[in-house]
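The pair is quoted verbatim underneath.

:::
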Amino acid sequence: MWFNLFILVLVAAQRLVELVISRRNAQKLLARGGVEHGAAHYPLLVLVHAAWIIGLVYFSWGIEASWPWLGAYLALQAARGWVIAALGERWTTRIIVLPDEPLVDSGPYRFLRHPNYAVVAAEIFILPMVWGLFWFAMIFTVLNALVVAWRIKVEEEALRPMRP
C-alpha cells in the first residue's frame, strides 16, 4: 500500500535530517575540543538502522497499517524531540565527549542515563508492529540491542572521568 511507503519515506527523511543535524553538531563539538569514541561500531549501527527501514518497505507492502501502533510510534517522536532538545548542540549520532564540560542532566536525562537508546529501542519494535510484523520487530530489536550494548559500554567508558 502507498500509505505504508509514505510512512516509511517520512521516517527515512526524518533520519536523514537527523544525520545532517548530527554531522553539523559533531563538527562543532570536535572544533571545541570534543573527542570521538567508538567510531568502529558506527557503520554497524547505520547498517542495522538502514536494513530496518529497507526491510520494512519490503515486508509492510500490502499490509494495512494499525492506527493504534502508528499512534504509539508518533508519540515516541515527542520523546525523541525531548532528547534532542535536552542535548541541543551536543546531540549527535556519534559518541563525542567534551572533556571539560559537565554532562547534561536536564530533560529526560534526569530520569534515564541513556534516554535516546530507550526511544530508539521502542521505535525499532513499535514501527514494525504498525503492520503486525512481530517477527521482524523481534529480530531488529535483538540486533539493535547487541549494537547498543556495545555502544553503551564504549560511551560509559568515555564518560567515566566526567561522572561524580
Observations:
- The two ends are 52 Å apart (CA to CA).
- The chain has a mean pLDDT of 95.
